């Protein structure tokens, strides 16, 4: 059996990971590794980071169905209708609309791919409780774990606080990632605000996530519990492929956002990614990944393939030559010397070789580790 849960978050509580943790603690049966899935970042009713949760249950329908029915009514229904916390105060605030799903067989994998790459409607089938959260719950159940990382999450008892030295130690363990900003050394594992999460530490294996979680708990203010989730974070599943293009037009907008070819958008907050886009000139070739939204591609990674600028050659007398007309080469306006090529090509030194991504704290949970 497959159980899914989503959209229980609201301003002062209901954090979906903690609600799910408590549900798992209460379950009357054995279960698999809990799964945390991130879905399409632009979903119109997304909650924090758009995480949804699921788990395989080792039981039968007759046992679990009445139990879930009761748990839903007692513990989850009261969370509905509360106003959700958004990181952006200007975004429309939606009340939480929890959803829970139960399937005998995993839903079609296709439903996961649709939900991670675009807007979807409800999945038909299985047992479903509640509202909009049923979408994320079913999509999480449909995930096949083909490209995985792990996240160890601990929830706080009171104050939030993680020891800096322990965090540095965990950051140094082979197999953890995005624990600290590599440049500023600022921690990236703790959310801000009212969320009950003490930290979430990401790793490329279950064992490393588990080890790092235990170290961090020892170096934290009191916690009430922890779990390691298998996730689709850093899978890149939300993006279909890369695009190769040539710069025709570059516009630096008010606020520092860069728009290339009226299509590719690099936000000012995206750090080096924004800087390298500012550096581009017409004629430069690049490869990029990004999410298509409202006729723009929001860039999540870019590498410059070639930057060759052409100009009219400088004559031996020191004057810049001028065109003699279409495909006619160039002539010096001072001494009338002729250059039959007409152009000089010069490669610019690319400031950062390879893929450039937004600053670590501005990256999407789904963003692949390109570096
Ligand atoms: Zn000359």
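^ structure tokens above, recovered residues below v
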């Amino acid at each position: 059996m497959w159980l899914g849960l989503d959209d229980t978050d609201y301003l002062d509580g209901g954090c979906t990971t903690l609600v799910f943790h408590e549900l798992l603690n209460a379950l009357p049966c054995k279960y698999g590794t809990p799964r945390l899935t991130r879905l399409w970042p632009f979903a119109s009713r997304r909650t924090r980071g758009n995480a949804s949760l699921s788990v395989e249950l080792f039981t039968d329908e007759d046992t679990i169905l009445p139990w879930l029915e009761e748990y839903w009514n007692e513990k989850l229904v009261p969370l509905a209708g509360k106003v959700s916390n958004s990181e952006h105060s200007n975004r429309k605030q939606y009340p939480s609309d929890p959803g829970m799903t139960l399937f005998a067989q995993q839903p079609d994998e296709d439903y996961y791919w649709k939900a991670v790459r675009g807007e979807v409607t409800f999945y038909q089938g299985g047992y479903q409780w509640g509202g909009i959260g049923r979408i994320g719950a079913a999509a999480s159940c449909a995930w096949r774990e083909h490209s995985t990382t792990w996240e160890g999450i601990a929830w706080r008892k009171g104050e939030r606080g993680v020891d800096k030295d322990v965090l540095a130690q965990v950051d140094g363990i082979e197999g953890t990632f995005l624990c600290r900003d590599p440049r500023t050394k600022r921690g990236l594992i703790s959310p801000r605000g009212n969320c009950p999460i003490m930290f979430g530490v990401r790793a490329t294996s279950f064992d490393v996530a588990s080890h790092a979680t235990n170290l961090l708990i020892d170096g934290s203010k009191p916690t009430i519990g922890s779990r390691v989730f298998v996730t689709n974070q850093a899978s890149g599943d939300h993006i279909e492929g890369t695009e190769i293009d040539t710069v025709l037009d570059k516009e630096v907008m008010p606020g520092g956002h860069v728009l290339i070819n009226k299509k590719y958008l690099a936000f000012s907050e995206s750090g080096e990614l924004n800087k390298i886009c500012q550096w581009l000139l017409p004629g430069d070739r690049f490869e990029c990944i990004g999410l298509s939204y409202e006729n723009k591609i929001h860039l999540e990674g870019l590498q410059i393939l070639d930057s060759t600028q052409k100009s009219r050659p400088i004559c031996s007398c020191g004057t810049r030559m001028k065109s003699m007309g279409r495909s006619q080469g160039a002539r010096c306006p001072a001494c009338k010397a002729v250059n039959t090529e007409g152009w000089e090509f010069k490669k610019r030194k690319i400031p950062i070789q390879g893929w450039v991504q937004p600053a670590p704290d501005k990256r999407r949970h789904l963003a692949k580790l390109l570096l």
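Residues 315, 317, 319, 332, 334-335, 337 surround zinc ion (CB under 6 Å).
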